[in-house]
Structures are given as C-alpha cells and as structure tokens.
Write a structure and sequence with these properties.
The protein folds into two domains: 260 residues, TIM Barrel, CATH 3.20.20.70; 132 residues, no CATH class. Helices cover 39% and strands 10% of the residues. The chain has 16 helices and ten strands. Helix 3 packs parallel to helix 4, helix 9 crosses helix 14 and helix 14 crosses helix 15.
Length: 417
C-alpha cells in the first residue's frame, strides 16, 4: 500500500475535481453566541441570548444537512461560531458528523471545555482543533475578551486537549491591544510543541458595525509582522514575482474569483447559505428546501454574478498580496464592487517593502503619483522602527510564527476566530 502526505492528498483531490462544482469544504457556524466579548470579533452575541438560541438550526436539521453534504462529496467540515461549544448539543452534532466520515476542524476559544468534552473528543478525534489566544498575559488576554477569568479557562482547556493527545493548533489575531505579545504567544505554542499561526486581517461586524476596526493594526504594523519571518517574506516575494511576470490579469467580468460557491461555502446558525462566513448577501435558507437546492440554485446564482463597473482592482498586478474580495467590500463599504482602501494600502506596502514598483492600474491612490504613495514610502523606511515598537525580537525568525500566505483564491480559513 502506498502512502501519501496530507498536502499531496489535498492537492490530488482538488486537481481531480477541478472541473466539477462540488462543496468540498463547508463551514457550519453553529451559533453566534459566545462566553467572550472580544473587541475584534465580527459576529459574537451574548451567551445567554435566548432569542438567538431559539432561532438556531436544530440537531435534526443539522443531521439532514450533514446527510446531504456526505451525499454531495464534502471532504472537509469546519465547525465554528461564535463558540460552537456554547451549544449543549454540539457533541451530538459533532459525533453524527464523525460517523459520516468528514475531516473535521473545530474553531474554539477553549474556555468552556471540560474533562467530559475532552474525553469525548479523544474517543472521536477531529482532524484539528484550533484555539485562539487573545494575549499571553492575563491582563492583555482579558482586555481583549472583556471577561474576567477567561485567560485561566482557556489555558485549562488547552491542557485538557494536550493531556489527551488531541491535534491542537494555536493562533491569534494581532491587534492594537495584544500586538506586543504575539511573539510571546508564539513562544508559548513552541514550548507546548504545537503549531502557531496568525492573521492580522480584521473585518467589520456582520451587523455592519465598524467597531472591530478600532483595534485593527496599521498597514505598516501588518507588514512588519509579515516580513519579520523570512519564510513568509520569501513567499510574498514568490507571489509578487509570479504576478508581475504574468502581466495584467485577464479581463473578467466575474464578481467572485475565490473558491466560494465552487469548492466551498458557509451556513450560518439560522440556516442561511453564503459564499463564505463574512458574506451576507445570499438570502437562501436551507430550511426552505435543503442544502443541495441552495448549492445548485441560490449559491450558483450568487457565484455567477457579474461586475457592473470597472475598478482599480480589475487590472491590479499584485492581487496575491491583497485580501480584497467582494465580501470585504460588502462589510467595509456596503458594496461588493468597491475596493477597500485599507487592503490596497497593505498590498502596496508589501510590494514596496520588497523593492517593487507596482505597475499602475487605474486611479489608484497607492500607486506612484497617487495621494497615498509618499505616506507608504515613509512607512517602508520606518519598518525597522515599527518592528522594534511591536516588541518583535530581532531573532524572532521561527518558521511557525505564521502560516505561509497564499493567493487570494480562498480565505485560507482566516474568517474563523
């Protein structure tokens, strides 16, 4: 019997099914309720929100969805929230999914894990469990979560999973509150022997509140974290060189250019399907006719939407350095076709920090002669000072500091907590 690695297996699956529209990767947001009140979160609701709980899909409805997903060929399943363990029936949903054979990842903050839950997960191990750290010190962690005692509960949850040998990963979202502790969190993960990653992208709330942006890093701080790790910096160099060599992207009127609606999708706690967890512009509810109907009709119609006007993004040659997508436009500008200036600044700053001159693309403020160009040049010159201000040690060059960036063909899981 021949044995292949997971990466090779994943590539083979996608390559074999490249010409077919199959929901290989599905995210189920089981609830938006959460015991924490994190300042950066895009969808958390109070744990005791009974109205939200009463509107959530039931266990039987989830069983029906899981039956359909299995029949349609779904491989990867992500259980997210809110906090999925906020549901008293989470283990029932999870175990049913395990018996269906999905490769399951769980996103959790770890604060409500108990020995009984950990024992059950040990009996039916997931593919991965990812816990988000909100700070290294108790003070910073709880400033982020706004919940006293949450730091110790998280660390207790981590210990419960490690004691049972479960496949744990740790991650964080660098913010203006915890940015000086990112390396300490990375070191904590290294000492535990588990993978650590981060993603600095913060979105507005799905209820359109811009409050999470109040703790978002500046573009210069984001790039400083990117480039302190030589592996991550080298990957951005590879992506940039590939994009510049390829020339201007081929003209396309397609609004969506990610894997959403082709290989992946999300279902929120109330049954609404969407391209991804942050896109809120699909009205179909699986309660109306099931997952398959929504995938074949409603989500296919969403995926088939065309641009109604040109934008500077259409001919941009550094799209692989940018997190822009229609869902970001929806959240930040209430317009799927409107470029997000913040993301444009990050992308250009990444290119400029690598010494590249970005080819002009429309009326772009960040390109040469644009209104933001001089400011970005100054930010590049100040990168060493920015790294020092972020308390990133000069030798913080560990390869597990962050996962390698990829093109914006998919969100890479960054939409989870």
């Amino acid at each position: 019997m021949s044995v292949i690695g997971y990466g090779e297996f994943t590539h083979a699956v996608h390559a074999r099914l490249s010409n077919e529209r199959i929901p290989l990767d599905v995210t189920l947001e089981l609830t938006h309720r959460c015991p924490l009140a994190c300042q950066h979160c895009y969808n958390n609701l109070p744990m005791a929100d009974r109205d939200a709980a009463n509107r959530e899909l039931t266990l039987d409805e989830y069983k029906q969805i899981l039956d359909e997903l299995a029949a349609m060929g779904t491989f990867w399943l992500l259980f997210s929230g809110g906090e999925p363990f906020a549901r008293k029936d989470f283990l029932d949903i999870y175990t049913y999914a395990k018996h269906k054979g999905f490769l399951i990842t769980i996103f959790t903050n770890g604060t409500v894990l108990t020995p009984a839950i950990a024992d059950h997960l040990a009996q039916y191990p997931p593919f991965a469990i990812e816990i988000t750290l909100y700070g290294h010190s108790k003070q910073v962690y709880e400033e982020m979560t706004q919940q006293p005692g949450s730091h110790d509960r998280c660390h207790r949850g981590i210990s419960l999973l490690l004691e049972r040998g479960l496949p744990l990963k740790l991650k964080t979202v660098p913010t203006s509150i915890n940015k000086h502790e990112v390396f300490e969190m990375q070191k904590f993960a290294q000492d535990l022997g588990v993978e650590f990653k981060f993603d600095s992208l913060i979105n507005p709330r799905i209820d359109c509140s811009q409050s999470p942006l109040g703790v978002r890093l500046t573009p210069a701080e984001i790039v400083a974290f990117d480039y302190v790790d030589p592996a991550r910096k080298a990957e951005y160099r590879r992506l940039l060189d590939h994009d510049i060599a390829a020339g201007a992207p081929a003209a396309s009127n397609d609004l969506y250019y990610c894997g959403g609606g082709l290989r992946s999708c999300a279902v929120d706690p109330y049954g609404y399907m969407s391209i991804c967890v942050i896109s809120q512009h699909t009205a179909y509810n699986v309660r109306e006719g099931g997952f398959r109907k929504g995938w074949d009709m409603a989500l296919h119609a969403t995926r088939s939407k065309q641009r109604t006007r040109p934008s500077k993004c259409g001919t941009c040659q550094i799209q692989s350095l940018c997190g822009m997508c229609p869902a970001n436009g929806e959240l930040e500008n209430n317009d799927a076709e409107s470029p997000v200036d913040f993301l444009c600044q990050v992308a250009h700053l990444r290119a400029m920090a690598l010494g590249a001159e970005v080819p002009a693309h429309g009326d772009c403020e960040c390109c040469k002669h644009g209104s933001s160009y001089a400011e970005l040049q100054d930010a590049v010159a100040q990168l060493p000072a920015t790294i020092e201000q972020l308390s990133i040690p000069a030798k913080a060059l560990l390869p597990i500091l962050s996962s390698a960036p990829s093109s914006n063909a998919s969100c890479g899981g960054r939409c989870g907590h």
